[in-house]
Amino acid sequence: MKKILLYSMMMAGLFTTSCDLDINEDPDYPSSGDVTPDLVFPSIETGLAVAIGSEIYNNTGYFAQYFDQMPSGTQYQNIAIYRIYENDDIISRAYRFMFAGALPDADYVITNSTNASDRFAATVLRAYAYQVAVDLFDKIPYSEATQGQDIQNPKWDNGEDVYKGVLEELDAAQEDLGTDPANLTSQDLIFDRDINQWIGFANALRLRMYLRLYDGGVDAATYETKIKSLVDANEFMTADAGVKGWANEVNKRNPWIEVNMNLNGQNQCMAFPFTSYLQATNDPRIAYGINPATNPTLGQYIGQIPGGRANTPSRLGADNWKAEHVSSADYEVATTQPVYFFTLAELEFLKAEVYHRFHADDAKAKAAYEEGVRTDFTARGISGADAFLAGAAVNWDSNTDKMYLIGMQKWVALYYMDHMEAWSEIRRTDIPKLSSVDAEKIFNEYFENDGTTSGYQAGDLISPWQNTMGAGTYINRIPYPLSAAQYNPNTPDSPANTEKVWWDKK
Hints:
- This protein is mainly α.
- The chain has helices at about 1-15, 35-65, 75-80, 90-110, 115-135, 160-175, 195-215, 220-235, 255-260, 270-280, 345-355, 360-380, 385-390, 400-415, 420-430, 440-450, 480-485, and strands at about 65-70, 140, 155, 240-245, 270, 290, 330, 340.
- Strands 1-5 form a two-stranded antiparallel sheet. A two-stranded antiparallel ribbon has the order 2-3.
- Helix 4 (about 90-110) packs antiparallel against helix 5 and helix 7 packs antiparallel against helix 8.
- Residues about 1-30 and about 315-320 have low confidence and may be disordered.
């Protein structure tokens, strides 16, 4: 049953068109007494996996500057140069999978299940879905959402209110569990029904949201206390929170891989900020998920200057800048990879931040930072974490800017794992920072002066060479989905993509 539900979700929705479903109507989810909540539960997990593991994962991989458009293709060129308008609807499938599928399914389980653990886990997934939606759009339907015919045009709530609302839901659902909860009865593709892991995942989500509330200037004293208490208690999951069960078969692969393999071409090459930082820190993870350039004239691992595909002039003598000169993404490593909602590595880096910022405990901050790196090495099957941590560029004791170390290694650890959170953490912390050096200058100097640049620090983000939003800008949000505006007159006008979401105060 587990695989049937997973694969049916993949087949039914991954490749559907973007404007064929009214998200404010009752979704086509099981409501018959013949289908019990324990069988509906996996559709929440797979619905979110398809939503977040495909479109959102892909687009935010460009925003986090892991990827850029391969010179030989055009599929994601508009994403790379921030040519993203309200009528582009780049995220509509993901929006539909959340608001017309996963969230109503979560409501169904919460309303109909007689098992408190199943209701709690569904509440955790509901909170996670809303957290991601807020971080994408800021305002979203929440208090009146998923009401079907009862409220066909839900209002859009402020993101801060949504965060507070889902946190209250989590607290109430956990109170309902009691002191000795049983495991889930539902099929479970994330934690195999282990309620203690679900409680730990809920605490990790709390930590993520508390930090954003704190940095968003919301009741700082209260959330500082909550942050410190949560980390001190250390009751987090001990396994990655990710939807498993993908197979190396057509229509059964990881959603991002499924989409890109069906496009019959290589569209993702690596972005220069990411490869430059991995090179500068002698990071062995540079070989993970990255194919060496087939023409290594400029080096084995070379990233495209962001937004540079349309602007890159003739270089290398009479030759043109071609796909063979840059490193492409290696799809094979992610074919059966889980769709991660929260990794243990991210959790360790957040704990390191808390120990450093709020406790001023250097020993615990260092231990969590190093554990984050080691955990990510292990997750990728790569050895040498201790030798890497001894290197001057990333060694805790050798560097004074501890937040920079934490942020940069978190950025690396989220690559190929959770691109949405990488983009959100960049916006929250400003790490990596946006370089003041323009893209063309970096290209000209690096590729014509034996790999040297003046003023550019390896790993700094680069405002795209061709940038539809304007030179020197960075994308801080995306427009509201066109499909939402078409069906719901309460959908607000989309702010400019340069406008920050409510918690982004840096």
